[in-house]
Amino acid sequence: MEMEKEKVLNILRNSSNLPLSLIKEFLSDKDKDIKHEAWNYVILNVKDKEFLLELLSFHDTGTRYRAWNSVPEFIISGRLTLEEVISRKRYFLEMLKDDNKVVRALSWYVTLKPLLEMKIVKMEEILSYSPFLCELINSEFHDVVLDTMDEFRITCKFI
């Protein structure tokens, strides 16, 4: 159902009990503003454990990135357990090599450290993905790559 953008944004901003199927639809929307408001809705209103776990493996990696970035908050608030998140870590690891360079760079630069600190992922698991970080060295994410290499002592072998 095609709704006009402002109407959708209004619904997301002023509701608290929308059907999860509708939220999923909005989280997959091509419009960044709608996706952003849908994510804000999730953070403020969604307590459904199965839905939050599904977001950790969501098909849209932009939304999946946001879910993984919120893992510490989800665990601290008791919405998810450490064990539940660890059992889905492969979906985070996939983002370390994602085709979407923004998702890939931010997964390395922003999301990785808290997940390592919480022992959701281990450094040994991450190192095999380092070539995907190194691929971004000559992109707009050059500085992010250098900072990440430095922080995690990752070496890129350049030919």
In short:
With 159 residues, the chain is mainly alpha-helical. It contains twelve helices and no strands. It has a domain at 47-152.
Q: Report strand %.
A: under 5%
Major sheet summary line: none
Strand elements, count: 0
The count of helical stretches stands at 12
Q: Provide the helix percentage.
A: 55-70%
Distance between the termini: 51 Å
Q: What is the CA-based Rg, rounded?
A: 17 Å
State the secondary-structure class.
mainly alpha
Low-confidence stretches: none
The dominant shape is: globular
Average of the residue pLDDT scores: 95
Oligomeric nature of the chains: single chain
| SSE string, helices as H and strands as E | HHHHHHHHHHHH
Protein name: HEAT repeat domain-containing protein
Task: Please describe what this structure looks like.
It is built from twelve helices and no strands. With 159 residues, it is mostly helical. It has a domain at 47-152. The longest helix has 17 residues, at 101-117. The radius of gyration is 17 Å and the shape is globular. The mean pLDDT is 95.
Features:
159 residues, mainly alpha
Secondary structure topology:
Blueprint (H helix, E strand, L loop, with lengths): L4 H10 L5 H8 L4 H14 L3 H7 L5 H9 L1 H6 L5 H5 L2 H7 L5 H17 L5 H5 L2 H5 L7 H11 L7
Helix pairs in contact: 1-3, 2-3, 5-9, 9-12
